[in-house]
Write a structure and sequence with these properties.
Blueprint (H helix, E strand, L loop, with lengths): L12 H14 L7 E2 L10 H10 L2 E2 L11 H15 L7 H17 L11 H10 L1
Parallel strand pairs: 1-2
Helix pairs in contact: 1-2
Length: about 130
């Protein structure tokens, strides 16, 4: 499930703060989350690392070519690129942002997945937390 996301014209600290604030608001109790951020500047930024630790979020620190802890993230990105992005042209940044938000909501709430036993990510999370 994509729990939090943020789109920005540039990846700055303000964007990262918005993302983690959204994540903090939406993170279910009793989970052991891993956050993958690629190897951008934020994965080494002191504020970012401290904030993840405060929230109890394990940071994905895999090296290039060693993606065990981010395999689920890469799988989602692959589907997102194939189903939403590839081959499309967007008239504006706003059109892209609106479309991406709609796709993520679709992914979480309507897109059933074989690997989740035919459930949506939202249904699977609810079932897992109830167990």
């Amino acid at each position: 499930e994509i729990v939090a996301w943020d789109v920005s014209r540039r990846p700055d600290l303000a964007q990262q703060r918005r993302l983690l604030a959204m994540l903090e608001d939406r993170l279910p109790e009793g989970v052991d989350p891993v956050l993958h951020s690629d190897m951008g500047w934020q994965y080494q930024h002191r504020w970012w690392r401290d904030r993840l630790a405060e929230l109890g979020i394990r940071q994905s620190m895999s090296r290039k070519g060693d993606c065990i802890d981010n395999a689920a993230t890469e799988q989602v990105f692959g589907h997102l690129k194939d189903e939403f992005y590839t081959g499309r042209e967007f008239a504006s940044y706003e059109e892209f942002e609106t479309g991406l938000n709609e796709y993520i909501i679709h992914w979480n709430t309507r897109r059933r997945q074989r690997r989740l036993e035919g459930r949506t990510p939202e249904e699977f999370r609810s079932m897992s937390l109830a167990a």
